[in-house]
Each structure stands twice: as C-alpha cells, then as structure tokens.
Design a protein that fits this description.
The complex is a heterodimer of chains A (92) and B (604). With 92 residues, chain A is of the alpha+beta class. Chain A contains 3 helices and 5 strands; from the N terminus they run E-H-E-H-H-E-E-E. In chain A, strands 2-1-5-3-4 form a 5-stranded mixed sheet. The longest helix of chain A is centred in the middle third of the chain and has 12 residues. Chain B folds into 3 domains: 197 residues, Aldehyde ferredoxin oxidoreductase, N-terminal domain (Aldehyde Ferredoxin Oxidoreductase,  A, domain 1), CATH 3.60.9; 188 residues, Orthogonal Bundle (Aldehyde Ferredoxin Oxidoreductase Protein, subunit A, domain 2), CATH 1.10.569.10; 146 residues, Aldehyde Ferredoxin Oxidoreductase Protein, subunit A, domain 3. Classes of the chains: A alpha+beta (92), B alpha+beta (604).
Chain lengths: 92, 604
C-alpha cells in the first residue's frame, strides 16, 4: 500500500510518501496507525474532535475516489491500494 | 452617486476623438448590479448582435463592480465586456489587480470605447482631466515596457491596462494586462482593443468612494473578512500554495487532462509541476494579493537555467496547460512560457491548449513538419517559449496558432481534435471524470471555461458540499446555482475566490451596505440569473443554438483508458434536458417568454 501526502500534511509527516506493509483492516485503522507514527498534528488534521470520525477539512482518496463516495472512514483497504491525503485546498 | 457607486461613466469615441461623461443608469444597477451584468446590459442595448468582434462598431466596456475600490475584502475586480473574437459569443473577461479600484478613485464606474482610432493611441485619465494621446512610440512594445513608459510619461502612481504585441496582431486570444501581470484573460478581448488601435489606458485618481452608513458597512465587511480568514482555503491554502496547489489533487482524483485530453486522468510526474514543488524548487519568491485582498493567491516567481526568467504565476490552468496538457514536466519551462504570455499579452489558457492541439495534430501526421518548423511532439519543453513568441507576432506556425485550437485543427481537416466548446478551449478539469464540469463547460456563455460555475468545487474539493464526480443526478441544479451566483459575484466587484468562504447572503449584505440598495441573498441570485439569461439571449441572437451546448466528440465518445474512471465518457445527455428545464428554457434550450418576462429581459 502506498500513502501519499500533500500540501501542509507533508509538514506533519516529514515525508511525501509512505510504503506501508503492516496489516490494516480499513481506513480508520490505517489513520490510527499513521497517527501513532506521525503524531498529534497529523491526528488532529485527519480526525474530528471525537477522534472517531474524519475531519471535515481533510480529503482522502482511495485509488482516486474520495472516501465520502466509498464507505467513509470505514472504507476497506487492500495491500495494493493507493491512498492520497490532502487538506482542503482550492484554486481555479 | 449612490453609496459606493460613483454614478458616472466615461465614453470615448476613438473615431472622432470625443470624450464625454454620462450618468449611470441606476435602473440597470438595480437589476444587473455592475461589472459583468451592467456591461452586458449596456452592450446589448447599445451594440446588439449584428456587429462582428473586430468591427470598429464593437464597443468595449471596462466596468467596475459597485464594491470595487471599497474596503470590502477582495473587491479589486473590473470586467471587460465586448463581443469575443475567439468565440463570437458575448465576452466578459474579469481582472483583478489595482486598475479597477483606480477607475473608481478617478470618479468613474466604467469606461466605454467606441469606434477605431486612425493611429495608435492611449487614454490618460487623471481624475476629471481626460485625454487621448499618441501611442505610436508604444506600438510593438511588450507589456512591461509599455507599463513602465506610460508611468514615466503620465504619473508613477498611474495604473496601466494595456495590450502587448499579440493584441496588436489581432491574435484571437490576446488578453489585456493590468499592473503587468493581472489579465482580463479569455476570449480575445485584447484583439478588440488592438483592432481599435487602443494600446493602453492609464488612470489615476484621488476621489473618495463613499458608503451610505459607515458603521453598517464596517460591520458587514468585518463579517466577510472574518469568514475569509477563518476558512482553510481562503485563509491559508491559497496564500501558501497558490492555485497551482490543484495539480496534485486533480491528478490523484484522476481528473487531470493529459496531452490534449488524449491520455486522460493522471500522470506519474504531476507532483513535479505542483504548487508544493514550486516552493521546494525555490520558484516561489513571495505571494501577492490584488487590491484589498485578504487571500493573496498571486505568485511572484522565478525560474532557472535553461529557462531562466522572472514574473508571476502560473495559475493552475496555465500550469496544467503548458505542463500536463502538453506532456511537459519541467516546471521552469512551464513558468517561463507563462511569463512570456503575460509579457506578450496572450491568454495563458488558450495558448498552451492550442499548442497541445498542435502537438496531437503533429503526432497524428496531420500537421506536417515543414509547417511546424520544429519538433512539435508532446513533451518537448524547449519549443514552448518560441511558439508563444511566434504566436504573438503571427510568425510561421504562430500565424495559425494565433487563431486558437479550433481554427487550427479545422485548417488541418480535424476540428474534432480541438478540445474546445464554442471554439474556446476547456481548462484543466477532465469532464469524463467530473460529470458536472462537463455540463458547466457545455452551457457556459463564453465557451469552454471553468469560472462560469465552478463545479470542481463540490465534485473534487468538497466545497460547499461533497458531490460524487461520477454521477449525473442532481448536477444540473447545482450547476445552475453556481452559474447564477458566479454571475452576481462577477457583477459585484468581489473576487470569485471569496465564494469558497462567503455565501450569497453575506455577499448581499456587503453589497447592500455599500450601495444603500437593499439586496437579499435571493435577490442577488435573481440578478445572477438575469445576467446569465441576458448573455444567453445575446448569444442566440448571434446565431448560437442549443446544439452548441456540447463537448468535443472525444469527451462524449472516447472512454477513459485507465484509472478510477476507466471506461467513462461524459454523460452530458443525462444532465442537459434537466438543466434546460430548471432554467425555464424550452427543450431546445431557448429561454421561454415567461422566463424572459419574469426576469424583465426584452428580446434582442
């Protein structure tokens, strides 16, 4: 599984990309494990105040699809998945 | 004067050199607000649909919004309204910078240009003192030199709008630059200025812009400013990364068109052309804002050998255009080509997308090497600067590039390879991934354009709601709302980017407090709908029909080859009938008599 980070999320992780080999069940599980690895700022960026839901100001894509249109924080993951994590950004 | 509206227009007849002032029609203001709306209304009343874009009778309207030049946040906008050389539709090109605010300080809500001067001239507006001056010595000069020379001979404080060589050579997508790097960019408004022999406008003023109730206005702008600063996009993201931040999210969402939309979706080197990379690679010198802006999305940038240069930008669409759309991954080459567009006065969206079209024609064997004069293959970064310069001066292959992608592709017998709508090129969002953006492109009143109802916002960015880009259900309704809101915002003087944080109610509140004319959020939206319908009526009077509300055959018929949306085409046919119905138009896209009456629009 490859996890890519963008914009100021990179400031929290210190890397642009992680090649993830540990077992995960779903997105919530992955984000919990990544939060342990990358710390408080990362955790606060991806989780809401309850620490169980997704922050409204985060965009997470699994294989190019926004998780909102999959199964949200409970989206199941497989070893070949590509995960992309963005803060809310815009332009045009 | 009504609140922040100066109540006065300056009319310049370039044929006989007369300059007059006249009062603003306040009935128009109530219904069309200003900027895009007011300019379009005046154009329709005074010119109509029977004048060709480069005819001297094609008037140009430089119109501010009521809020332009006030202390309201991010309200530095003015619009240029005329008939477009590129499309033949109504053109409304929107620019930031400081020129619009200075128009207001000189005492005017707008400048109107009629006719054609015998020789090159520029207009010098110093408050009430207005004169046409000879511009023979400026003709042929690029935008930075023109701007510097005009400041020397008028005032160091003057704000300058001008064309470059591209406008002089009637390039169909020439733009108008103000403060060197802020553009009224699309549809070829710079060519109309060139056809009039009008090189530039210099303006300086020191008159006040009043508001009827200072306390009420201060309260309204404080609310708007707070919302803009607290929003993660307008308060932080755009300032830090600029609009080029979108490269990665569109790429990761499989929504980044690649190589003239031929290889759509995503490309492995996208990050090397991104806003993040421009910081890492030290291209970014600093950020910059337009007049009264609290966002500051502008980029002052530099590039390194072999593409060394200095300037501003690129914005996302130009960065994508010279980058992914041309198959080019070198950020320095991309930025340098964008610098040259600004210096020569070219629309930095149509320029690269026309080059991308030429590259596909070349690789397909339709555009012969002897015509190209170079290796026009996708990915050849070394030719970008030269192609931009050739286009501005109409030299060699540049003479065809200067016509835009549709006429270029038509010349070589393959108009289907132009990725355009109504002959204006689609920007950087793949309609086979984002179904809603396809509807927006197809129905835009100025052809392929992302800032007529930015469906990318809900479909990719999740603002203000998260819509699945793959579905068509419900998109027609959202597209209509976005188009109407955008029309009203463009009329008000606010920058469109404020809508990432402000809704119609806050915008209406600021507009009401500034003008003293009460607009509710619903009334603001109704004004937007009126503007949209007037533009539509004008285009139909010019001969456009519902059949023109379409997308290139590739987008409708060629499925995406890979990625998350493999197999997908635009399903425009699923959205368009509902869109027409919601608009109150006939099944063939004609505004009904009832809708016209409801909006108080007369047939042209």
């Amino acid at each position: 599984m490859i996890i890519k980070y963008f914009a100021y999320i990179r400031d929290y992780t210190g890397v642009k990309q992680t090649d993830w080999h540990a077992a995960v069940t779903d997105l919530e599980d992955l984000l919990q494990q990544l939060s342990k690895k990358h710390g408080r700022q990362f955790r606060d960026a991806v989780f809401d105040e309850t620490q169980t839901g997704l922050n409204e100001e985060i965009i997470i894509l699994v294989n190019g699809r926004h998780v909102q249109h999959l199964n949200g924080i409970h989206t199941e993951l497989t070893p070949n998945d590509l995960i992309a994590i963005f803060p809310v950004v815009a332009g045009g | 004067m009504t609140g922040c509206i100066q109540g006065k227009l300056l009319r310049v007849n370039l044929t006989n050199g007369t300059i007059t002032t006249e009062p603003l029609n306040m009935e128009y203001v109530r219904e069309y607000i200003g900027g895009r709306g007011l300019g379009t209304k005046m154009y329709c009343e005074e010119v109509g649909p029977n004048v060709e874009p480069l005819d001297p009778a094609n008037n140009m309207y430089f119109i501010t919004g009521p809020l332009t030049g006030t202390g309201a946040p991010s309200t530095g906008r003015f619009m240029v309204i005329t008939r477009a050389p590129l499309t033949g539709t109504i053109a409304c090109s929107n620019s930031g910078g400081e020129f619009g605010a200075e128009m207001k300080y000189a005492g005017y809500d707008g400048f109107i240009f009629e006719g054609k001067s015998e020789k090159p001239v520029y207009l010098w507006v110093d408050n009430d003192k207005v004169e046409l001056r000879d511009a023979s010595h400026l003709w042929g000069k690029e935008v930075p030199d023109t701007t510097d020379l005009l400041r020397e001979e008028t005032s160091p404080r003057a704000k300058i709008s001008c064309i470059g060589p591209a406008g002089e050579h009637l390039c169909k997508f020439a733009c108008i630059l103000n403060e060197m790097n802020r553009a009224a960019g699309r549809s070829g408004v710079g060519a109309v200025m060139g056809a009039k022999n009008l090189k530039a406008i210099a303006v300086k003023g020191n008159k006040a812009v009043h508001v009827p109730d200072k306390e009420k206005f201060a309260e309204a702008i404080a609310e708007a400013t707070k919302a803009l600063k607290e929003n993660p996009v307008t308060g932080a993201g755009l300032k830090a990364y600029g609009t080029q931040i979108l490269i990665n999210i569109l790429d990761q969402s499989n929504g980044l068109p690649i190589r003239n939309f031929r290889d759509s979706g995503t490309i492995e080197w996208a990050d090397n052309t991104s806003g993040e990379y421009m910081i890492e690679h030290k291209n970014l010198v600093r950020n910059k804002g337009c007049f009264s802006c609290v966002i500051g999305c502008g980029r002052v940038t530099r590039t390194f050998k072999p593409y060394a240069g200095f300037g501003e930008g690129p914005e996302y669409e130009a960065g994508w255009g010279f980058g992914a759309d041309c198959g080019i991954s070198d950020i320095d080459a991309i930025c340098q080509a964008n610098f040259r567009c600004n210096e020569l006065g070219l629309d930095s969206i149509t320029m690269p997308t026309t080059i991308a079209c030429a590259m596909e024609l070349y690789e397909s064997g339709y555009l012969p090497k002897e015509d190209a004069g170079c290796n026009l293959s996708f990915g050849n970064a070394s030719i970008l600067k030269d192609l931009v310069e050739k286009t501005a001066y109409r030299e060699g292959i540049g003479n065809l590039l200067a016509e835009g992608s549709y006429r270029l592709a038509e010349h070589y017998g393959h108009p289907e390879l132009s990725m355009s709508v109504k002959k204006q090129e689609m920007p950087a969002y793949e309609p086979r991934t984002l179904q809603g953006i396809g509807l927006e492109y197809a129905t835009s009143n100025r052809g392929g354009c992302h800032v007529r109802g930015y469906m990318t916002s809900p479909e990719i960015l999740g603002i203000p709601m998260k819509l699945d880009p793959a579905v068509t259900e419900g998109k027609a309704a959202v597209c209509k709302i976005f188009q109407d809101l955008t029309s009203a915002v463009d009329a008000s003087g606010f920058c469109l980017f404020t809508t990432f944080a402000l809704d119609a109610n806050i915008i209406a509140k600021v507009l009401s407090a500034g003008t003293g004319i009460e607009y509710s959020g619903d009334e603001l939206m109704k004004c937007g709908e009126r503007i949209w319908n007037l533009e539509r009526i004008f285009n139909m009077a010019c001969g456009f029909t519902g059949a023109d509300d379409t997308l290139p055959p590739r987008i409708l018929n060629e499925p995406q080859k890979n990625g998350a949306y493999k197999g997908s085409v635009s399903r425009l046919h699923e959205m368009l009938p509902e869109y027409y119905q919601l608009r109150g138009w006939s099944p063939t896209g004609i505004p009904t008599a009832e809708k016209m009456q409801e909006l108080n629009i007369n047939q042209l």
